[in-house]
Known about the structure:
With about 375 residues, chain A is an alpha/beta fold. In chain A, about 40% of the residues lie in helices and about 15% in strands.
Amino acid sequence: MTGIPLSDIAAGLSFDVPFVPPEALERARGRAFRARLGANESGFGPAPRVIETIRRAADEVWMYGDPEHHDLRAALARHHRVRPENVVVGEGIDGLFSVAVRIFLDPGLAVATSLGAYPTFNYCVAAAGGRLVTTPYVDDREDPEQLLALAVRERARILFFANPDNPMGSWWDAGAVDQLIRSVPDGMVLFLDEAYAEFAPPGTIPTIDAENSRVLRFRTFSKAHGLAGARVGYAIGAAAVIQVFDRIRMHFGVSRISQEAALVALEEQAYVQEIVARVARGRERLALIARSSGLVALPSATNFVALDTGRDGAYARRLRDELLARDVFVRMPGVAPLDRCLRVTVGPDPDLDLLAQVLPEAVAAAA
Amino acid sequence: MTGIPLSDIAAGLSFDVPFVPPEALERARGRAFRARLGANESGFGPAPRVIETIRRAADEVWMYGDPEHHDLRAALARHHRVRPENVVVGEGIDGLFSVAVRIFLDPGLAVATSLGAYPTFNYCVAAAGGRLVTTPYVDDREDPEQLLALAVRERARILFFANPDNPMGSWWDAGAVDQLIRSVPDGMVLFLDEAYAEFAPPGTIPTIDAENSRVLRFRTFSKAHGLAGARVGYAIGAAAVIQVFDRIRMHFGVSRISQEAALVALEEQAYVQEIVARVARGRERLALIARSSGLVALPSATNFVALDTGRDGAYARRLRDELLARDVFVRMPGVAPLDRCLRVTVGPDPDLDLLAQVLPEAVAAAA
C-alpha cells in the first residue's frame, strides 16, 4: 500500500468481508440457486400492500427521502409505546451498528461479545478501532453472566448480546435479559440485538424501558417484515443517546421508497403474525426433514434453524458445499463448536421441498 | 450528557445538521410546497424504464441486494472505460464520503476545503475527528491554487474540490482541474466531487486516469439520473484505494431496488442527454425570471442556479423566507459572501411558472 496515506485504523484492517453473498456464489458457479435459505431473509415476502406501496412510490424516487424519518419514527414510537425521540432509523441494523459503535467507542477500547456471534458487528468494531474480547457460547447459547464478567474485567465500553441469537437461534427469557440490563455498570452500554424479536415466544423480549441510557435495542424490517433488500432498521434508546446519532449518521441514507415500505409493513401486523405462524410451522417441518437425514434441529426462536450434524466443522462444511452444489443456498456458523451446525432459513414450502429432496443426497455425498 | 460514555469524537460534535429537509419545513408550516426547487433533485424524474424497473423489482425486496454491486460496477466500468476494480458503489456520495474520510483521516489531521462548500462533507470530516481548514471562494468559484497552498501549508490529508461546484454552480475547465490533480503531493488525496458532471459543458471534466491513487472522483445517480431518493453514488479511484472501502463500508447498505434502478438509469444515456438539454433551457428561463425581479443568475454548469440578490445575507434570507411562504422551496449558501445568493434548482416548467409568479411578490415583500 506504499504511497497511499491510509488512516492508522484503515491500515490495520484486514480484507475479511463478513458475508459472501449468494450472488457471488452464483457467479462463481455460473448457475442460480433454486432455494435461497442462507441469509435469513423472508422468502414469504412482505405484505401485498407493501409491494403495492413500493410500486406506487416509484414515481417519487427523484426526491430525497425525509432524513428525519418523521412518519416512520412516529409510527414506531406508537407501536412500541415510546416517544419518537427514543427512535432512530438507519440503513438496516448494520448501518446503525456502524454509527452506534462510533458514538461510544474510542480506539483501543474493548467490546465484549460471544465467540461466533454476529460478524458484521465485529466488523464495525474493527472499523472503529475497537478491541474485541469474546467469551464462548455455552450449550449453544450466549452466556450473559460470563459476557458481563468479561466486559467488566476488560472495562468494555460496549457489550453485545443478541436475543434471540444468530447464528444459533437460541434465546433467553425476558427475566434473564432484564437481569443483564440491570447489571450493566457505569461507563458501559449494552447493544441488544433483537433482529429476530418478532419470532420469539412470549416472555422472551423484555419490556422496553426507553429512557434507560445503558441499553440500545436494535430492530429491523429485514426479517419478519420481509424487507431485507430495503435496508431499514431502527434502534430504541434514551432520547439523550438517540440524539447523538444525529451527529454522525448519514441523514439521507435510507431510500425514500424503503421508508414508505417500512411504514406500511409496520401497519400490517396481522400479516407479520401470519408470517410468524408460518415460520413456526416451517421450523417444525425443517426439524423433520433434518431428522430424516440424521441431523438434529436445535430449538429456535427465529426464522432459521441451526441443524446439528453431530460431527465437526470440516464435516459441516462439506455438507454445506454439497447443498450448495445442489442449488440450495445455506450458511453455517464461523467458529467451533458452533460450526458443527448448518444454519438454514425457514422458507416457503417449495424451498423446503427442494431441501427435503436433496438433503439425503448431500448427506450421503458428504460422508 | 452525564452518565453516557460517549467517544471523545462524538462528545465533541455539535448537533448541527447539514440540511433541514423540505419535509420538516412542510411539517412546521402545516402545508406542502407547490414547487420543490431547493435540493437540486431532478423534478423531471428518471427515465420511464427506470420507474418500470422499480415496479418490477418490488417483488424482490425480500432479498438483500448484492453487496458486491457486481452488475452495476461492471456497467459503470464500461461506461467510464475503467475496470470494475476502480469503482465502489455506496449509499449516495454522502455515504461514500463518510467511508472515504475514515479511510484516510486520523483524528486531528487537516482537511482543506472552500469556505461555504458542501456541508455534508464537512460533517463527515467532523465525525471522523478531522480538522477542517478553509480558504474563501474567489469570484464565486473555488480557488484551486489557494486551496492547494492551504492544504500543503496545513499538511492536509484530504483536499476537497467540487467541479462543477455546489452551491454556486461555477466550474473550472479540465485543464485547471488536471493541474490540481497533478499538484497533489505525497501523503494527500484529492476528493473530486463531480456530482453535477453530466450538466457541465464539454471540456469541464478531466479524463479519468483511474490508477492515479492521489484522486478519488465521486459521482451520483441523484442528479441527472433523477434517483435522489434511491441513494446510489459511486467513486472511481485506483484499485488499491477502492479495495480499502471493502474494509469499512457497509456491504449491504444499498437497497436492492436502487441497484437495479441505477443500472437501468445508466443505460438510458439518451434520456440523460435529454435532461441535460432541458436543464440548460431551464437555466436560461430561470435567468430571465430572475432578471425580471432584479436578480442576476450566475453562470452555472449544474442543474441549479445561484441567483445573486446584489445585497447581503440578511436580505437573501428574507427573500428566501418570502419564497418559502409562497410555497416555493429553495435554499441558499450558508456563509458570506456566497449567502447574498439564493440557490434555485432547475425544475419542470410548472415549477418555474410558479416561481415566475411569486418571485416579484417575494422581492417586494423582502424589500
